[in-house]
Amino acid sequence: MKKNKQKIYLDYASTTPAGESVVSAMIPLLQKDFGNPSSLHALGQDALYAIDEARRKVAEFLGAKESEIIFTSSATEADNIALSGVLQKEKKAHVITSVIEHKAVLEPLNSSSAEVTYLPVNKEGVVKVEDVLKEIRENTVLVSIMYANSEIGTIQPIKEIGAAVKRINENRKKKIVFHTDAVQAVNYLPCKVNDLNVDLLTISGHKIYGPKGVGALFIRQGIEISPIFYGAKQERGVRPGTENTAAIVGLSQAVEDLQKNMTEKTEKLRDRIIDTILSEIPQTRLNGSRERRLPNNINISFKGVEGESLLIALDQKGIAVSTGSACASRSLLPSYVLLAIGLSHEEAHGSLRVTLGRMTTEKEVDYFLEQLPLIVERLRKISGK
Amino acid sequence: MKKNKQKIYLDYASTTPAGESVVSAMIPLLQKDFGNPSSLHALGQDALYAIDEARRKVAEFLGAKESEIIFTSSATEADNIALSGVLQKEKKAHVITSVIEHKAVLEPLNSSSAEVTYLPVNKEGVVKVEDVLKEIRENTVLVSIMYANSEIGTIQPIKEIGAAVKRINENRKKKIVFHTDAVQAVNYLPCKVNDLNVDLLTISGHKIYGPKGVGALFIRQGIEISPIFYGAKQERGVRPGTENTAAIVGLSQAVEDLQKNMTEKTEKLRDRIIDTILSEIPQTRLNGSRERRLPNNINISFKGVEGESLLIALDQKGIAVSTGSACASRSLLPSYVLLAIGLSHEEAHGSLRVTLGRMTTEKEVDYFLEQLPLIVERLRKISGK
Known about the structure:
The structure is a homodimer.
Chain A: E1 8-9, H1 20-30, H2 42-62, E2 69-72, H3 75-87, E3 94-98, H4 103-111, E4 115-119, H5 129-135, E5 140-144, H6 158-170, E6 177-181, H7 193-196, E7 200-204, E8 215-219, H8 245-257, H9 262-280, E9 284-286, E10 297-302, H10 307-316, E11 319-320, H11 336-340, H12 345-349, E12 351-355, H13 362-383
């Protein structure tokens, strides 16, 4: 069917393939070591041990205690537990977040009865520390700001926000809890929770070459979190249901495999793509920040071209990219993230997200940069713009 | 370390190993077919197609429409969605359930603001249809009765309860929704939702030789269910978070592999175990029903013996069994299910659950029946009872 057999995946922010070592670590837990961690017999206890060991690895990566790590079925669930878990016990609570958070943060807040302040971002997509501080009220119980944005790759000053909240907490009886969704950051940025000054932090398996269907939530000791649904008392009563041992072990293997030395290579490829597009294709603009940017993120607006048309044309050439977050891809609305940094509806609709990953090669980038200008030119001709 | 290398697993109600075909079906979705089903490019659409196909298989098994199946991260989550999903929209709602439901049903109901009637069961653990009818009130919106109990294997008259509720609904403006947790039933009992007259039905992956971390909920067309947590709009807005494609496909493969012809063979082994224990070991009693019983469930009380001591002694002989549900195994409280059918605390503490599965052989049963009487005798001598 497909003429072009070449397959180039440049959508690593949507999801990543599980690494070989991850799949190898998972398979025994599905088959011979399939015990239920709640069972008292040896097979069950072996499964419990495997989870403990996974918890130790994730805790080590985050510089946290093992007892501070909870495994969940996804980052979405972890975000919901973090937010609703804090808010459920509070009446008339106030929360500060940003307008460009992931839906997994915005939607639970929209659905809660809390007062929510949605902070604006500057044209690069950055939340200002002083804006957070300005909005703190007496009844503020929670601040949730993502570590890095999935669409435009902007990195937030989490460490600085955390430090500022910490200072304010020194003079407050009711402490403010600081949460960050670090899903997009984990592959490239330092994630030690004490350096970041965060109380709650979310990670996802499938964004870091682990399996889908698993996430983890760091909950700083002393912070009480209620479950968002109920059953037996797994995961310290915070997350019920038989533990997904294979996925949990897969996530911990993915964390162990994180290659921090990928950053420089990835940044070089990213900069080459950005520079080439901006210089060789007229009427293009980079969305987000040039400096505070994830090493693997490119987000460009093309005047007079629909992002979806670009995506489909590239797909026909065997190149997989995105127009924004995968989660919103079936929506016809323009990206709320791009609108928030000041793009018009038309500009937002004309945007493309290219995200690099562990397997991305120079050759793949060559091919992409060869095809893209031709496609943009053709689409502009068709639309007459 | 272990002297006895023999490994006999007789705890299939706690969890099952994933079948070869299940693991084979999952691996591609973790690696080469790893796309995010929300991505518009071919890799994403292939993943979406895989989920659609999985949904078709599960729907077919249940005799339901594809649009009536929602995938979740566990049966616990599916039960919570079913119950809270119905109750969230209701004020002053009344729910009817039984005292022997799984924690995944009891705990969300305990945590809800609904009035809940907990129906008693008879000494075999059976809920009476007329007891359900008697408790129906004007504000009754939900009935939730499990298909078969995980501890004592008692099969409930789901079809009859469903038919009775259906008849009552004919004369009600506000229809009563009927939910059943079918987790333990799926391996052996008919599960066509229209025959069962159910509106909501829960299944689990890891109880039917599928992976952990996945469940499914049948939601009859026309029944509105709210999500229990929030994010992007996956699974028709009922269950957010990137779909766990590998586990979903694994679940559907497990459903496809269900071997109904296992029932007779399993029942024979079960009856041999029950008859041998009751006749050869003095002061034993069968818990649950002899007739309305899952083909793979044996639950026996041994006078003067602690269930946990039995479990540990058997484990040392390489035989894995349970004292009750795995989920409650870390609790020191006696089984609420056994208390509900009239056992004393002492009798409940002296109980053992043996559950058979697809891989159980005559030889394994021989060995178990050879070891058990010796162990019981020894433990009784030690305790002097």
